[in-house]
Amino acid sequence: MQNRIHNPNLPAVRRLEAVGFRAWPAASVQYDGSWQVRLTAGHPSKRLNCVVPLDPSDYRDIDIRTEKAARRFEAYGRALLFRETPLAPPQLIDFLRRHGWERFEEVIVMTADLSTIEMPDTMHHLPSHDVGRFVDASLKVDAADPALKPALAEIVSSIKPPSGLFSIEEPQTGPVAAALCVQDNDLAGIMSLAVAADRQRQGLGVEILSSALRWARTRGARTAWLQVTAANEPALALYARLGFGEVYRYAYWRRNKPE
């Protein structure tokens, strides 16, 4: 069952989508009308490999444009994904539903006012400028494939707005938490935040998030934003305690595999 707030603020959605594209840049970005086609050969991130419709009134030739996008994705060795935000035309969503596409992974986009947010008194960590070290830490904390290092390093290096690369490392175990904060004028996006599986629920998430938000606030950011899957209840509880509130939701659509 779809669960989203009623009448989302579309100008706010457009702005957060725009800063999100800059904060997590795809290697290839093309447009078909107002549909943004994002592809990145070296990294499987769904945000980097999807079609994002950006105008509710742009729903002409849906079937032709969908097949055109599918061929482009196939050339990259990827299955076509659509990302549904409040900017997606309802006619497109009806088309996908009628043709048996599957909606999955609902994500909540949240914001917080950095002038009023109350951050706990935790240890303060300064950001690093060492992309390689941050990528190593991020992959280890996420238990991700080390082979993704070149692609992830390229993505992080290609972020144009100022970025804060945060990690918490311990002498015996190495990295135990990592976070990436991107400051785009008055907006600060938490693009990734992870804590090692065996160190969760020990305050490390709050510690590294607070460090990132303090860094962004001292640089003039007034609003923080982040994305979290709707099923991640511990993270949602943490963000709510810090004062984050929902602005809108998005989800992905994929073709159902034939039986």
Automatic annotation (TrEMBL):
<feature type="domain" description="N-acetyltransferase">
    <location>
        <begin position="121"/>
        <end position="259"/>
    </location>
</feature>
<keyword id="KW-0012">Acyltransferase</keyword>
<dbReference type="InterPro" id="IPR050832">
    <property type="entry name" value="Bact_Acetyltransf"/>
</dbReference>
<dbReference type="Pfam" id="PF24553">
    <property type="entry name" value="Rv0428c_C"/>
</dbReference>
<dbReference type="GO" id="GO:0016747">
    <property type="term" value="F:acyltransferase activity, transferring groups other than amino-acyl groups"/>
</dbReference>
<dbReference type="InterPro" id="IPR016181">
    <property type="entry name" value="Acyl_CoA_acyltransferase"/>
</dbReference>
<dbReference type="InterPro" id="IPR056935">
    <property type="entry name" value="Rv0428c-like_C"/>
</dbReference>
<dbReference type="InterPro" id="IPR000182">
    <property type="entry name" value="GNAT_dom"/>
</dbReference>
<keyword id="KW-0808">Transferase</keyword>
<protein>
    <submittedName>
        <fullName>GNAT family N-acetyltransferase</fullName>
    </submittedName>
</protein>
